[in-house]
TrEMBL record:
Keywords (A to Z) from UniProt: Membrane, Transmembrane, Transmembrane helix
Transmembrane segments: 28-46, 53-71, 77-97
Taxonomy, superkingdom: Eukaryota
The keyword Membrane is assigned to this record: yes
Protein name, per record: ABC transmembrane type-1 domain-containing protein
């Protein structure tokens, strides 16, 4: 019975991790869209020299954010894999205890 409870808890953790990954991806997409829209507006409003500086600044910021997002996603995927392995182990133990 304890193994079944642990399996349910691990399944809930898995769902939470998937929701976190989807949230991170959605936030990144929204940020990229906002940056692109701002750049389009900035290009229409100001001169070329300032646009070059702004574009370089945005590229640096996007690179830093992209690295952090990739690190977060890698950690989330590792956690999901660990939770899946634990869930599989718990279900195997539960099945072996049930059959004996």
């Amino acid at each position: 019975m304890e193994m079944l409870f642990l399996a349910v808890v691990l399944l809930v953790l898995l769902v939470v991790e998937v929701v976190l990954v989807v949230t991170v991806v959605v936030v990144v997409v929204v940020v990229v869209v906002v940056v692109v829209v701002v750049l389009v507006v900035v290009v229409d409003v100001i001169k070329e020299v300032v646009v070059v500086v702004v574009v370089k600044l945005v590229v640096v910021v996007v690179k830093v954010v992209a690295v952090k997002v990739v690190l977060v996603l890698v950690v989330e995927v590792v956690v999901v894999v660990i939770v899946l392995l634990l869930l599989f182990f718990c279900l195997c133990c539960f099945c072996s205890f049930s059959s004996s």
